[in-house]
Write a structure and sequence with these properties.
By secondary structure, the protein is of the alpha/beta class. It has three domains: 9-100, NAD(P)-binding Rossmann-like Domain (Rossmann fold, 3-Layer(aba) Sandwich), CATH 3.40.50.720; 103-305, 3-Layer(aba) Sandwich (UDP-N-acetylmuramoyl-L-alanine:D-glutamate ligase); 316-449, Protein-Tyrosine Phosphatase, Chain A (Alpha-Beta Complex), CATH 3.90.190.20. It contains 16 helices and 20 strands. A six-stranded parallel beta sheet has the order 7-8-6-9-10-11, sandwiched between helices. Strands 15-16-20-17-18-19 form a six-stranded mixed beta sheet, with helices on both faces. The chain has a five-stranded parallel beta sheet with strand order 3-2-1-4-5. Helix 1 packs parallel to helix 6 (151-157), helix 4 (102-109) runs parallel beside helix 6 (151-157) and helix 15 (403-413) crosses helix 16 (435-449). The mean pLDDT is 95.
Length: 450
């Protein structure tokens, strides 16, 4: 761990507990900082608050009193989910008190090199791919950030023999000032979290902080097919590594003669990659570039790409039975996500869809149903989806009581070379506690068929 004397005797306010706040508080306390921790949850039953108090840390629960700002703070460490419109944070900004997230702390203390990955979509898939591709390399990959362990906690324990692979959100990056990854990845930029950032421009600026402090010794890997991302990357001082599913960029990642290439090196034939979808091809390109730059072997990369099933519940490959391939996309809780899933396949699809009725129609799903030969609906929206299927000209429309019953029914409707896809286009809460539970039911039902 790097020299932590910077934090000694600093007066720091941590706002928001959860995992990152709790880990950050313990860490900064161990560095000799003078801490106050503030959490809006009531003190009663707050286990994390109780543990911190036993360490001698002051904890203020139940509200965010502005008086916490009156003690000449050096800076605030904010939970990423707390918006800047929060009255306490808003007042801190007015008083010019620096506001960080624990990502800033992680970058300051880590002895390991860092691969930081951001984007509106695909972060988890790309981060997981990079972590897998770097196995058996010279350095030990440790996955952290939004997936895996809290970033600052991992950073404190890391050594020069490790490499941190971190999935980072705009919320986390917005609270950085000196954060400088050796390899940064910017996957894409879509309209999202505008209630938090206020505008697409501000959202993009927050994402672009991933490369703000990089220099010519670092790398920025970015999506050249995304105009917004490409524009934001013009000001980056790092070495540019573009990737594109459409064009060939010298020095980048591209497709040529049915194969994926990094710079002048063939990596793998596209036909060997098991993860479906053009959007996943972009994620794969980014992961390949980051992994090769960080020291991964071509052999390990090829092994991952020929076996990687996808992140669980996100277009996850579950298995094959008698020529039918099963995919679990239970995370698709809206029409946009189901459209993306359907676009990933050229084969005929048996679609399993349905769930919580939020009052919307499914007309926006119509253009994506061209390859759907049959649909099995379930849940509160079963009838609505059946009507949409009729409009799309789908002749085979069946209804099941739930996902468990939908799987064997879909199998009976299928033929060899078909895809059986759970992509509900709806939240799960009418029948299941979470989309994860719904996806697990799908997986279990597929295994029962086998």
């Amino acid at each position: 761990m790097k020299d932590t004397t910077f934090f000694k005797d600093k007066k720091i306010l941590i706002v928001g507990l959860a995992k990152s706040g709790f880990a950050g508080a313990k860490l900064l306390h161990s560095f000799g900082a003078h801490l106050t921790v503030n959490d809006k949850s009531p003190r009663e039953g707050n286990v994390e608050a109780e543990k911190l108090e036993k360490l001698g840390i002051e904890v203020v629960c139940g509200d965010h009193p502005l008086t916490l700002l009156d003690s000449q703070l050096d800076f605030i460490v904010k939970n990423p989910g707390i918006p800047y419109q929060n009255p306490l944070i808003d007042e801190a900004v007015k008083r010019n008190i620096p506001i960080y997230t624990e990502v800033e702390i992680a970058g300051m203390i880590s002895d390991a090199s860092i691969i930081a990955i951001t984007g509106s979509n695909g972060k988890t898939t790309t981060t997981t791919l990079v972590g897998d591709m770097l196995k058996n390399s010279d350095k030990t990959p440790i996955v952290a950030g939004n997936i895996g362990t809290v970033f600052s906690e991992v950073a404190a324990e890391s050594t020069e023999k490790d490499i941190l692979v971190a999935e980072l959100s705009s919320f986390q990056l917005m609270g950085t000032e000196r954060f400088k990854p050796q390899i940064a990845v910017f996957l894409n930029l879509f309209e999202a979290h505008l209630d938090y950032h206020g505008s697409l421009d501000e959202y993009g600026k927050a994402k672009a902080k991933i490369t703000e402090n990089q220099d010519c010794s670092d790398y920025i890997i970015y999506n050249a097919d995304d105009e917004r991302v490409s524009y934001l990357m013009k000001s980056s001082k790092a070495k540019h590594i573009p990737f594109s599913v459409k064009e060939k960029y010298e020095g980048g990642v591209y497709v040529e003669d049915g194969a994926l290439h990094f710079q002048d090196q063939k990596v793998i034939d596209l036909s060997e990659i098991v993860l479906p979808g053009k959007h996943n091809l972009s994620n794969i390109m980014a992961a390949v570039a980051a992994s090769l730059l960080a020291g991964a072997t071509l052999e390990q990369i090829r092994q991952v790409l020929t076996s990687f099933p996808g992140v669980k519940h996100r277009l996850q490959y579950v298995g094959e039975l008698n020529g039918r391939r099963f995919y679990n996309d239970s995370k698709a809780t809206n029409i946009l996500a189901t459209n993306a899933a359907l676009s990933a396949f050229e084969q005929p699809v048996i679609l399993l869809a349905g769930g919580l009725d939020r009052g919307n129609s499914f007309d926006d799903l119509l253009p994506s149903l061209k390859n759907v030969k049959a649909i099995v609906t379930f849940g509160q929206t079963a009838d609505k989806l059946a009507e949409t299927a009729k409009q799309a000209g789908i002749e085979t429309i069946k209804r099941a009581d739930n996902v468990e019953d939908a799987v064997p029914l879909a199998y009976r409707l299928s033929s060899e070379d078909d895809v059986i896809l759970l992509s509900p286009a709806c939240a799960s809460w009418d029948q299941y506690k979470t989309f994860e539970q719904r996806g697990d039911m799908f997986i279990n039902s597929v295994h029962k068929l086998k």
